[in-house]
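Title: Prediction job returns without error message
Component: structure pipeline
Severity: low
Priority: P3
Assignee: unassigned

Description:
Job completed but the reporter wants confirmation the result is attached to the right record. Sequence as submitted:
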Amino acid sequence: MNYAASLAVVAVLTFFFPLAVRIGLYYDVPRSLVSTTLGAVLTFVAATLMIRWQVGHSRRATEQLELGRAQVGADPQNPRAYFVDDEHLAALLLRLGRRREATEVIERFAGLGGVRETEIASLRQLLSQAERRQRRGG
């Protein structure tokens, strides 16, 4: 079920559920069944909200990545072009699970003049942590 369909089901359940509970109680449906149904609906709503948050988070990260790539493409010799909202493009790539691209960006960044060695060291440390997580399987 896609995102729009999930929201449509939540909207329908929001309006239909109170009516369904009253009808159920009128026909002597046990309260435990009503409670179980309410729990299932709340679980569905929580899952839908989580999906919505993840989609929004992923969309923002993708937008930042595209902005960073555009900045680097426009001025590849400027070390500040590798930063998007005070986050390095390589760190963003690592967060998205793109280690190979992050390695390339770190190497290009390290080859620029005027780059502090501490920035390069911290990026390489992030890369090694991501590689260790990958080897551990998580």
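Comment from assignee: result matches the submitted record. The mean pLDDT is 83.
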